[in-house]
Structure prediction request, 246 residues.
Amino acid sequence: MLAVNDGEAVEIERLLHQRSECVFASVQRWGATWAGLEPSIQDSLRQFRKTNAGGEIIGIELGGTNPYGAVDIDHHRYGDDDRSNSLSSLEQVAARLPVKLDHRQQLVAANDRGFIAGMEEMGATVAEVRDVRAQDLAAQGVTPEQQQDQRREVETATVIDGRYLVTTAFDPPTALSDLLYQEKQAREWLIRGPHVWSYSGPRHKEFAALPLTESHWSGGRPQSGYFGIENPGEDARKKILNLFEG
Prediction:
C-alpha cells in the first residue's frame, strides 16, 4: 500500500509488480496518510483483514495510525511520530522481499535520502542524475511548462547570506530545488508555496523541532535534509521565517 507521488514510489511500485506482489496505489500527493486512502482501497484492506487474519499488510510512507494492523515502512519524521531510518523506503522494501537493487535503483534510493548530492557521492553521471530527477519530477506532476515558470521564480528569490528564500505558485515546489542546487549552487533554501512550505539544507532537524501544530515532516541526510509543512498558519510561518533568516 503506497501513494505513488514521487520517483521512489514509482520504483517501489515497479519492483513490487515485478515480484507479483498485490499493490494498492493511492493518488494522494505529498503528505499522504492512512486516513486519506480512497474509500475503495479502505474497503479492500478491511476485506483482506477479515478474510486473512494472519496476512501482512505493509504501508509505505503513509502518515498517521492505521486500523489494519499494518507494518509501516518509512524513513521520515511526522511531528512527534519519528520513523527515521538510515535506509530509504525502497531499500527497506528490497530487504523484505528480499532482492538486490540494481545500480539505477540504488541511485533512486540515494536521491530520496540525499537529493542530487546523494547521487553525486555515488559517482552518478550527469545523464544518470538527469534521468532520476526527471522521474521524480514527473511522478510529482511537474510539467516542463511549470519548470520554466519556476525558473523565473528562482530569479526573483531573496538571498540572505547565501540562503535562498523563494515564493512559488506551485505545489509541490520540487523543480525549484533542482534549479537552486544545480544552477545557483545553493546549499540551503526555503520555498514558500500556496499550501506547502519546504526547507532543504543542514538545519532540517531544527525546523522539525519547532513547536508546530500543523502537519509536517522531515528526513534526509544530516548535511542536506529536508523539512516540509502543510498549510502553515501565521504563527508557524513566523517561527519558520525567524529560524531561516536568523
